[in-house]
Amino acid sequence: MNILNMNTSVLTEFDMIIRLCLGFTAGAIIGFERSSRRQVAGLRTHILIATGATLLMLLSIYLPQQINPERSGDPGRIAAQVVSGIGFLGAGAIIRLGNNIHGLTTAASLWFIAAVGLVIGAGMFIIAAIAIGLGLLTLLFLHKIERRIFPSQRFKLLEIFYKDNNSSAKNALDIIKTSGIEIQSEDINQGSKDKGTKLRLLVRVPATVDIAAVARTIKASGQVRRVEIKEKY
Questions:
Q1: What is the three-class DSSP state of 81?
Q2: How far apart are CA 9 and CA 57, in angstroms?
């Protein structure tokens, strides 16, 4: 079956503009959710990936029309390269902290939104809408269900920013251990004198511990500029 006849006989510039706008919208929806959780790959990254994947799919459909309208070509060839190539971007979103991995869900969302962009570029709008809905369901709600089913398995990424490089992390570590929080791994990054030291901890938080209160205690312990708490996805 000629793939050009599956949705429309000729792919016009108007069709391309509509599909590019839909790809942009799809990337913005998923990217907004990732940005709201302060993930390394957020709104702009997801928009660019979704729009770029849509553009490449449009190109793979458009070129056979221009070169030889009597033959369909192989639109799946470029799509296959997008699927494999997106792995490099996904790897950049994964952070290894000691023996633990952070950012797998964000990496998966990059791969997912690239697939959505390809589907939109192919003109499968209903399928794309359903996929986006399922993606949002997974990102927004399923992690809450996981936390209820496994309440004792909450993991957080705790980032402590010190005012200078001479500050000691001992007080913060003592506060964390005394509160009952278990440190899985830690990483210390000493920047310039103005930026100060950054302590990153992957911690396991019991359901009975208020990590926000612990963070406030750490900030009040002295020489701490700010404390950030991030979800581990």
A1: helix
A2: 16
Output the pTM of the full model.
Answer: 0.57
Whether residue 110 is found in the same domain as residue 27: yes
In this structure, are 188 and 225 located in the same domain?
A: yes
Q: Are residues 30 and 138 in the same domain?
A: yes
Structure tokens at 151: 């309440």
Over the stretch 80-137, which tens digit does the pLDDT of each residue have?
A: 888 778 877 777 766 665 545 567 778 888 889 999 999 998 889 999 999 999 988 8
For residue 186, what are the contacts with CB-CB under 8 A and spacing of at least 6? 97, 98, 199, 200, 201, 202
- Of all helices (H) and strands (E), which one includes residue 30? helix 13-36
Q: Kindly state the DSSP code that residue 71 receives in the 8-state scheme.
A: S
CA distance 219 to 159: 11
